[in-house]
Design brief:
binds zinc ion; 220 residues; binds D-xylitol-5-phosphate; 34% helix; 8 strands; single chain; 20% strand
Length: 220
């Protein structure tokens, strides 16, 4: 079954514990934790201290998406702060340093993945594919919630699905950006099995209904 990962970027940061408990009760699978540094992306969000607090407040699987420059510098700290999985943008550092970040994360017993921005081709995941637990394909430019799904990314999702099926069949395929009840089915049809959704879940008062609507998404 497809996994749903609510992105707390669209949650009320003054009540993250309660917001998390609500999406957990509503059947969410992962909690997507967006980290932005104002350098790799033009926005600043949350980081290690917030992750530590959230770790104490929930037993949910925390999926930390690092939109930060040279993330290898912080891989160990995010693992220690309580992330269950950490994903690194391939555009954020050299290949060797991304490999090092993956190695640090896995050696700490956590899952690791790589992320590609909309302009980055599918084949950019190839050097990392046998070593990661997840590939994240962005379907908006990273930096902000509430943007429109980029339909032109669908062939790339399909291509990454082909690469995964051929080279690392246990690897998950996550998509992030503009996922809602209308677009979720398109991403799943292209091969995604983990759907991040921020505004489509936290922007609605009934989170259980919001998650159910995404799960029941059909291509119209
Ligand atoms: C964007 C973040 C996303 C964002 C998704 O840079 O990585 O996780 O929160 O938000 P929506 O679902 O509203 O596009
Ligand atoms: Zn994200």
């Amino acid at each position: 079954m497809v996994k749903i990962a609510p992105s707390i970027l669209s949650a009320d940061f003054a009540g993250l514990g309660a917001e998390t408990a609500e999406v957990k009760a509503a059947g969410a699978d992962y909690l997507h934790f967006d980290v932005m540094d104002g350098i790799f992306v033009p926005n600043i969000s949350i980081g290690i201290p917030v992750l530590k607090s959230l770790r104490k407040a929930t037993d949910m699987f925390i999926d930390a998406h690092l939109m930060i420059d040279r993330p290898v510098r912080y891989a160990e700290q995010f693992c220690k702060a309580g992330a269950d999985m950490v994903t690194f943008h391939v555009e954020a550092d050299s290949r060797d340093n991304i490999l090092k970040a993956i190695d640090i994360t896995r050696s700490m017993g956590k899952k690791a993945g790589v992320v590609i921005k909309p302009a980055t081709p599918a084949d950019a995941v190839l050097p990392f594919l046998p070593l990661v637990d997840i590939i994240l394909v962005m379907t908006v430019e990273p930096g902000f919630g509430g943007q429109h799904f980029m339909h032109e990314q669908l062939p790339k999702i399909s291509r990454v699905r082909e690469l995964i099926d051929t080279l690392a069949p246990d690897c998950e395929l996550e998509v992030d950006g503009g996922i809602d009840a209308g677009t979720a089915a398109l991403a799943v049809e292209a091969g995604a099995n983990v759907l991040v959704a921020g505004s489509a879940i936290f922007g609605r008062s009934d989170r259980a209904k919001a998650i159910e609507d995404i799960r029941n998404s059909k291509i119209s």
